[in-house]
Structures are given as C-alpha cells and as structure tokens.
Amino acid sequence: FPASDITRKVVEGRDPVDPILAEARKNYQLLVLGATERPEQREALFHPLIDEMVRLSPCPTLVVHGGPGERNLPPKRLLVPTNGSIASRNAAELAFHLATEEDEEVVILSVVQQLGMFSQLGADTQIGERELEARQQIGDELAERGRVHGAHTRGKVEVGVTVVPSILETALEEEVDLILLGTDIRPGSERLFLGPRVEDILDNAPCPVIVVNWVSGVS
Prior knowledge:
The chain is an alpha/beta fold. The chain contains seven helices and seven strands, in the order H-E-H-E-E-H-E-H-H-E-H-E-H-E. Strands 1-2-7-6-3-4-5 form a seven-stranded mixed β-sheet, with helices on both faces. Helix 3 packs parallel to helix 5 (125-148). The longest helix has 24 residues, at 125-148. The radius of gyration is 18 Å and the shape is globular. 33% of the residues are buried.
C-alpha cells in the first residue's frame, strides 16, 4: 500500500500479544498480522498467538496467510469469492487497492451451489435461474466498482455442488497469486473459528490467502 508516513515502534515484553493489543487500542483502524503456516495442532486456526490477537483485537484484523506461490508476490492475479455479503464486498475493495497496475487483475467469483438439485426435487427451475442471475449481477456490480477504482476487474460465476472446491479449482485455472476472503464473525470463545469454508481454503489453497475480519473482538 502507498503510505505517506510510516512509523516504526519497538516495545519490550515477554508476551507479544498484550503490547500489540495495547498499541492497537490507540485508535487504530486495522491490525495486520502475518501467519506463514498452519499449525499441526488443529485447535488453532492460524497460530495460537495470531488467533488470540484476532479474537481480542479492538479493531478489524487482516491476516496474511502464506502458502504456495509466495514468490509471485506482489500478486498479479487476485481472486475474491463473494456471496454478496458486506464482508466479501470489503474484501473486494481491498483487492481493488492492491491491483492498480496494467498487468494486474481482480477476479470476482460467485458460486451457485447445487443448482441441479432444484429439478431433482421437482422444484421450479426458475428458482435456480433467478439465483444464477442474482449471482451474475453481484459479480457485475463489483466488477464495475473495481473499474471505478482503476483496477482491471472481471466477474465470474461457477456452478458447483459445494462452494470450496469451486473456489480452489478457479484459483488453479486462473493461476491466481492471492485469494482474499472477507469475514464478519465476532469471536465468542477461546478458539478462533471463522467458519469451515475459511478453514478448508486455508488448508488447500494453491496460493497465499488474506483473511479480513471486519468485526472487532472483545478487548
């Protein structure tokens, strides 16, 4: 990100969590954290320290999760899965700010789930058609917003039985360098849980993943 003023600050402490959260409480709007690898112990989503900071952060958090393809950073092709939620739209806004060069592109992906089930159950196939049209509209609206920001943006709709495999397949087909996921879950327990889809993508993504949780925790 372009920045006119960068301040470097060093504090001492045995536990990094408390000093970082204390600093974040000083009217910051975003806490950015790096998580290079998934832990072997599955009780942690990223890493015990990272999970704790996301849970207790007084402001929204952005976690950069490393993975295959890190050498392709800065990213040229960015993928933003969306279901029309505010969280996914915010993730798209972030992608637009990252992809402003001529050779960079943001792909907005919307997955229509189990479209074939409508006819199998004897339901009106127009329900599936309306769902498909709605998803196409979501992608087109975000793509247009990206172009307003000066980013090369393209909407894409996929039909799949489940959402995560469609996202991962698209990431491979499009040779994506970075996936951006927007979440809006307020952590309510000692374990950070942002949903099974987020965990599946973190486990299997062919590239680094950014997870932005726009709801602050309880400090």
